[in-house]
Amino acid sequence: MLIAKSKKSHNIGETLIKPSILCAAQLILGKDSANKLSQISLSNDTVQRRIHELSQDIKEQTLELVRASPVFAIQCDETTYIAQCAQFLMYARFVSGNNIKEEILFCCPMESCTTAEAIFKVTSDFFKENKLSWDSLIGVCNDGAPAMVGLRSGFITKVKEKNPSVISTHCIIHRESLASRTLPDEMRDVLNVAIKVVNFIKSGALNSRLFKLLCKDMDSEHEALLFHTNIRWLSKGNMLERLYELREEVIIFLDSQQKAALHDKFKSDSFQIILAYLVDIFESLNAVNLKLQGKNIHIISHHDTIRTSMAKLDLWKCRIQQGNAASFRNLDSGLAHGNLDPELKILIITHLSSLKAEFTKYFPDIDDMRESWKFIRNPFQCEFANVAEEIQEEFLELKFNSTAKDEFNDLETFWIKYHSVYPLISHQALRVLTMFGSTYLCETAFSTLTAIKTKYRNRLDVEDDLRCALSNIKPRIQDLVSKKQCQVSH
């Protein structure tokens, strides 16, 4: 299990762990003890077999919990790894005990194409083989790819043929990232120049070394700039922040390398002011993105984060209109005499307005969802008119239950506890609380998959290792040992 968790190759047990154990045992316990320990098999095949057994036990426990849950949701995504093979991954979010848990359901290779039909067939076969009910499925979260959301033949369409009440959600983190890409032409020009400067300094080994020496001579806090790529959503903000922190060093370096065009653009006051604003705004957008990431976050919290960021955009716009740049730390400190240039003011207001419009475009129903979920957030401060007619009577019974009101604290725990007492309204609440808001788990799992499935292990069937590495469920090791002993005795 530890070998799988470490994401290392299976033969590490025989080549590294076992020799170390034997050496330590011989030094401390003596040669006889070391000889006994040497009988433990940690060969590649043995470790692989044990990882498979542990993985199957974890899978069985997960499926038992999902089948026992009144409702469950899934998130799914696919990626292509080192062997040019597409890998389809699915997570489940379900009720377990007094909590809502998230666990990997399966990870399988897509032998041919990754069309909606192929993805649905893999999912349908898994549901059928493991006796998972389509009726209990309440939500599917995906990355918004055409194969997933096609109106006529997408994966979601085919799922809704099995259960029309399934709610489809486009990953909130993806949507936030897409909404954050808007920039006025003047700001985009500054961003492009910043990227050219970074590429010039970091593209060659000599330039990188010379810049590092310059930073050392100037006792700079950092000694290198950062690259950025569009697929790494936070990297643009990190790149700009580092570039702004080392702006003095960059100006000197560009001058020493006789890059007059880049030097003059980068050194100009207008460039530095817009760069300072970009650093601030991308820092704020990165902070929103980070809040959306993480495990065991229900969709209501995701929506609260987005609504907060949209409200802040209005606040920042209002302050800028008044000539107040206090919301933007680097911009405020970089302004001459603390005054915003009228053209810069218009430019920033335009950008903030565009950001708000993009957020509204990608989250059109966020205010409606807030109203419809009001009874979930606090049923004791909600009116019966805000809930569906079929659950209004049960809602009133709950609302005036003083014991329940005193126990109202954690949303998930509360609604799970009262599911047996108020099944109709609790079921509606759990339908929302078990929904995935993002495909964060799939994205992090793909990072783990990349660490496991290297070019040196490209023939490995990765599902068992991946499940052992990612699952929070402890395998029933004692049961596995007893089962193995029984097999040996027979």
Task: Describe the protein's topology.
Elements: H1 2-5, H2 12-28, H3 31-37, H4 44-68, E1 72-80, E2 86-96, E3 99-110, H5 116-129, E4 137-142, H6 146-149, H7 155-162, E5 167-170, H8 172-179, H9 185-202, H10 205-217, H11 235-245, H12 247-256, H13 260-267, H14 269-292, H15 299-321, H16 329-334, H17 342-362, H18 366-372, H19 374-377, H20 392-399, H21 402-407, H22 411-417, H23 423-433, H24 440-452, H25 463-470, H26 477-489
Parallel strand pairs: 1-4, 4-5
Antiparallel strand pairs: 1-2, 2-3
Helix pairs in contact: 2-3, 4-25, 5-7, 8-14, 8-17, 9-14, 11-14, 14-15, 15-17, 22-23, 24-25
Q: Write down how many β-strands occur, each being a DSSP E stretch of 2 or more residues.
A: 5
Order of strands, main sheet, comes to 3-2-1-4-5
DSSP strand (E) fraction?
Answer: 5-15%
Nearest-integer average pLDDT:
86
Radius of gyration: 28 Å
Low-confidence stretches: none
Helix content: 55-70%
Count up the helices. Answer: 26
Main pleated sheet: 5 strands, mixed
What is the terminal-to-terminal distance?
26 Å
